[in-house]
Amino acid sequence: MQRTTIDFGIDLGTTNSTIAVVKGTEAEVIPNKIGSAITPSAVWIDKRGNLHVGQEAKERALNSDPQNADLEFKLRMGLDAEGKKVFARSRREMLPEDLSAEVLKSLKMDVQTNSGEEVLAAVITVPAAFELPQTQATQRAAERAGFTHCPLLQEPVAASLTYGFQNESDNIYWFVYDFGGGTFDAALMCLRDGLIQVVNHNGDNHLGGKLIDWDIVTKRLIPAATSEFNLPDFRRGNPKWQNVIGRLKFAAEKAKIEVCRTQAASEIWIEDLCEDANGNMVDFAYTLTPTDMERVSQPYIEQSLGLCRKTLADKGISGSNLERILMVGGSTLNPWVRDAVQAELGSKIESSLDPVTLVARGAAIFAGTQNMPEDLVHRNIPTGTWKIKLEHEPVDNVADPDIGGKVIAPAGQNIDAYTIEFVDIKTRWRSGRITLGTSGAFLTQLYAEKKRRCEYQIELYDATGNRVPILPEQVSYTIGPSVMNPPAPHSIGVGMSDGRVDVLIKKGTPLPAKTPVPSDHSSTISLRAGQAEDVLRITVLEGENQRADRNHRIGYLEISGKKIKRDLPLGSDIEITMNMDESQNVQVQAFVPVLDEEFEIKFDTKMMRGSV
């Protein structure tokens, strides 16, 4: 069947990644080549130069070959030289987005292995706290993995959809507590009038379960080893001990998971860990206890709860106003995390679904609400095929949705007196035949039942009543909540000559967003036409501080004297506008009336800068 909605969703995680596909009103996780629902976000290049993704790569990165493997690269997304990994043996250099692209390719191949389907479009989730360079790096990773269309979705929205897609409650607040391997998001969500909306959010892109793993290593295992064995300068960060520390990290993560699941002690035993300074082989043993886990977890739990308090307080909401708290991310399997969240917020903890795959499943549900781009729907259709362009919402909260479109006849074919009809494949409900005009356009209504994804066969008949094949052959519709336009995760503005920021798109503004009216400024220097050394730079900033130097510079717009045909006097008016789409792509335009010219920047996809 030719898909008319995207249907595939991906959680591109710091520690693990997952792909899911919508099936009916729910989503199904697609297993990888070893049958697991999750694929470690790790890459390893072996001696032959072959690249591996997943569990084996993770084990190599931690246990035996860290110089030729990498993991947790999501935390470096958006960085350039600082984020690059150089694989020692092959000398191959890869940016975090290149490494993420390999993970995405692996997930695509899992779909092809399981179903034979080629995935060209998918919804990919990002933390709500991701900044513009990180979201753009995610999009570049998707492009390099071969996706031609990849809307981005904030992780708290995906989590809410997994629980709330067929939930009939109304006018309620949910709180998403998303504690993943490398990032943390706190989001206040509202379900009202068939819409799911992000009311407020906060997060930390460097707060995750991996910090707990490392604290087990540095505050428990390393002190235990150095107190028992002669291991000079045995510490994290010392290249001499890199492999050994990696083995401890691998063991620490496994023991952490066991203690969290059983709330009982777990023994770490590593035979032949290393040689001590005396040349003796070290066999290392340590018993990780629930008390150890509680103590190393506590600082990070408190840090996350501080963000929760702020998220609620900013909107005047208390824990008692919440209908439930959605626990998302592998770190929420930690019982001390759950207990602390319950004690702090005092509302019902919702953990009935697997928190590790929750986001991918929500992304797939959202993907089922997104129409596939027309060029992908009609991709590889043979010449002479009748085609249909559909205009409809795949998900809405009404039982009789409108559907319109246009039937396109093959070259030389006459569409007069042709009719089209929609037939519910399950109930056999029929829309009745709609006669097409000379343009091929039509408009009608469907009838849908609740609690299922309704699939409709598209039937095209010629003037004599003969059935004519058409692509796509089917279309779907589901009664369910829509996602209200996602909010801008951070404020975006331009730096002023006095050190302030002129905010053009404010945090929380529904996307897509555009500066309502141009922001009036004046040039602080003059430019001479044709002079390359004369440059006016407009700095674009992201963040919430009123001082320009305390925000993140994400790019700049340069107006060069070399590019202008007339001189630009000092103090000339400049009108600046900004656009941001749902996937946080930003465009900045600067109109200079005295030159009667408009300068536009689309951020360079690698350097996060632009010029005209």
* Straight-line distance between termini: 46 Å
Helix count from the secondary structure assignment: 10
CATH H level, superfamily name of the largest domain = ATPase, nucleotide binding domain
Q: What integer value in Å does the Rg equal? A: 28 Å
Can you tell me the CATH topology of the largest domain?
Nucleotidyltransferase, domain 5
Give your account of this protein's structure.
- The chain has 10 helices and 38 strands.
- It has 612 residues and is of the alpha+beta class.
- The protein folds into 4 domains: 8-207 and 301-367, ATPase, nucleotide binding domain (Nucleotidyltransferase, domain 5, 2-Layer Sandwich), CATH 3.30.420; 209-296, ATPase, substrate binding domain, subdomain 4 (Actin, Chain A, domain 4, Alpha-Beta Complex); 381-483, Immunoglobulins (Immunoglobulin-like), CATH 2.60.40; 492-602, Substrate Binding Domain Of DNAk, Chain A, domain 1.
- The strands form 9 sheets. Strands 1, 2, 3, 4, 10 and 11 form a 6-stranded mixed sheet that branches. Strands 18-17-12-13-14-29 form a 6-stranded mixed sheet, with helices on both faces.
- A hairpin with a 5-residue loop joins strand 15 and strand 16 (281-288).
- Helix 2 (96-115) crosses helix 3 and helix 5 packs across helix 6 (242-262).
Task: Give structural attributes.
612 residues; six-stranded mixed β-sheet; globular; Immunoglobulin-like; Nucleotidyltransferase, domain 5; 10 helices; alpha+beta; 4 domains; Actin, Chain A, domain 4
